[in-house]
Design a protein that fits this description.
heterodimer, A: about 750 residues, alpha+beta, Aldehyde Oxidoreductase, domain 4, 7-stranded mixed beta sheet, 19 helices, B: Ubiquitin-like (UB roll), DNA polymerase, domain 1, 2 domains, 5 helices, about 15% strand, globular
Amino acid sequence: MYLADMDMPGMAHAKVLRSPFPHARIVSIDASAARALPGVVCVLTRDEVLADSTIDPYYGYVYRDVPIVAIDKVRHEGDIVAVVVAEDEETAEDALELIDVEYDELASVMDIDAAMAKGAIQVHEVFKPIAPELRPVEGTNICHHSTLAKGDIEQGFREADHIFEDSYSAPAVQHCALELHGCIASVGDDEITVWTNCQSPFPLRGELQRMFNKPARVIVPYVGGGFGSKSRDRLEAVVVAAAKLAGRPVRLLLTQEETFQTFIRPALTCTVRTGVKSDGTIVARHHRFAVDVGAYSISGARSANNTLKVATGPYRIPHVLVECDAVYTNKPPSAPYRGLPTTQHTMAYETQLDRIANELGLDPIELRMKNLLVEGDVHVTGDLLRSVHAKDCLEKVSSSLGPQLKGEAVASNGTIRGRGFSCSIKYTITPSEPTLATEAGVELQEDGLFEIRIGTVNMGQGVDTMAAAIGAEAVGVPIESVRILHSDTALVPQDHGTTASRATFHTGNAVLDAGTKLRAELLSTASDLLEEDEVRLELSAAGVAVAGSSGRSVSFVDIARHRGGSLLAKGECWVGGVYTDESGKEYPIASTFWTFGSVGAEVEVSRETGEIRVLRIAAAANVGKAVNPEQTKAQLEGGVTFDLGPSLFERLVWGDGGQLMTTTLMDYPLPTLHTMPEFHVDLLEFPYDQGPYGANGVGEMGGVMVPAAIINAVYDATGVLFHEVPLTPETVLAGLEATGA
Amino acid sequence: MQLELTLNGKTERREIAPHHTLLDVLRDDFNLKGTKGYCHSGVCGACTVLLDGKPISACIMLASQTQGKSITTVEGLAEGENLHPVQRAFVENFGLQCGYCTPGMLLLTVALLEENPEPSKEEIVDYLGGNICRCTGYANILKSVQAAAALVKEASL
């Protein structure tokens, strides 16, 4: 059952009036004709929102910059101006056309350069930061500027024998989760209830409670893919406000075109300057990047800031300076996107490494091996790295694919083949202070089965199986004895969100903790009932038995009855703070875990058409422990194919007027079975000391290295090194012609 | 208008709005929520159903065009608790993650194996290449279809 399959008694249907302009002041809104249309229940505009003194009209976790509906101006094409609630969707849609809005069009800034230009019009005149780490630059569109430094960057460049500098760009794309964004809200006298396909139900609940000054319950059914686009709310406050006004449950389901106007992966530009010794040792890296967060900084500024930690890649570099700008523009708001912007950083530093290898006459794999981080290295953040094995990952993909091909011709029609490699490091969201990030419950119930309660959202990544496997193992019962209850804020304990490869580590640890505690309770209770020492007791599917052949046992049903009907244990996963090594030395924790991996790509490039075919992809990641190997492999394969789209053809395009031109799948193709390469996926299992059974987060690792590996493979094939994606046939042909390759 | 059709093997009649698509009518009038929508423009394949045994996109066909015809949706595949061999193959081979594209993939596979019981890899890619899956990366879908061919063959022996 997905959200769109649900129905509520008395439910009305909402449709949204969206701005046709990327940037305009709203002069007036007249919705009287829409309200008069038979079948219309109500129309929500800025007037209704501002007239309700119990509502804070603005929301956002990072900046409180998103109005429920546009108040003073609209900031992107598709920005929400009004909401019609009607008896059915068709009536609501008809009523949209009866709303008269007068706009005063403003100049717009549609890309990073325009937004950062001196004197550029401001998307937000006033900054409203919430998150303490944010550093806006007043009077500009830069909503966050930050740096990360290690060593002395100038000294590093003085020590270098060669210095390389390159600039890169990647455009905006969309996630295209097949289940469309939607929400149902019901506002009672005492409580708000929201059914939504949001990936982060607990943060959403907190935000709704704050805005509407009322307790809220958030229920997330099965989610049909998220990939980050559903990681933060955009619709829920809108639908809650509409339901409050309507006085009955309201449902809003977006169309595919509307999702393109709701959340996108932001465009990114960066410049990488690297100093190396003649033998290939990297001594200095200056990495500057700017992220186009769009009209609202729902998560963009924080995502950008988080990737300072990984912008220089999985390499030992003594002198580092990373600089980040998050920039407001008049594009739709940006959302996380399966590893962003680690993907774009990896594309930059990994393709530059191949240029360095080529120009210094070094082998690209040898160059990486010389510089990759190893166990016990201290990362640029100051973190002590454990369970790295980045070199093992690279060796694995290298042996899977074999060596470079150097433009091997494969057919008489001018088709050539090449191979390219890339390595990366991925972080997870981590607060600096010790934080209880995730809780879980494991309960023995009346029927003798175990219910595992988690706040994590199931969107196909296999979180239920993971939690069931870990919970069953911790308690000591077969997996058939457990069932899962997830993502209903009234019934399960809190979790910070199903994002950033978090679930296996955070939820897994909390379930492991709860299961371990419950096992102890079970053994202690059985010990009392059987009058036997705990060490002589064994657990099975049926209950607890005395070891040996005595046949004495007590069933789980009896234990539950003895303990008043059920027995609950709560588990916790704490993150942040400091890590103390065996010698007592303390290190900061910038990321609760770091994931390392490699990808190798073999491509075929047509000199005639510029078309690239990705023939084979080898991927390897150190997963610590694969809780479910088939599912983990499938996550990596899924991530790889997902990122073939932005590597080869996906790109959102806005016209001169700031209107999105690529609104349907006709102009925005996605990877299909035809795009799929042959896969060689290897899971390396070097246990991580903090993970549940040694497991690490890996959900986003598959895709982040794909664009880099493909660009490097095309470089190997043609000798042309591209600095942008997607590598469409036009781009490739132009590149081949420009260099005479 | 009155619509009469054979739906998952049974004759059904409903009063429907003539401008509603087959996708809307299946989901809203017949309450068959297994058929999914995404692009609503006939591109992604999530809404694939079988019309007289042939796969079509329910989002771009008017329900009125199915007058007197036979429609199979994903709800028509299993017999009670017994999954169709194609469904079993997808479950056993991790052919799905979020499951949203799965009804379309299943029906397309049923149609493929009906036309071509022993498809090659290239024939599978061609036949299913129009349906989008965002989660699996397709490798396990390909594997599932190959396994389904073996299961269907076994079942027909």
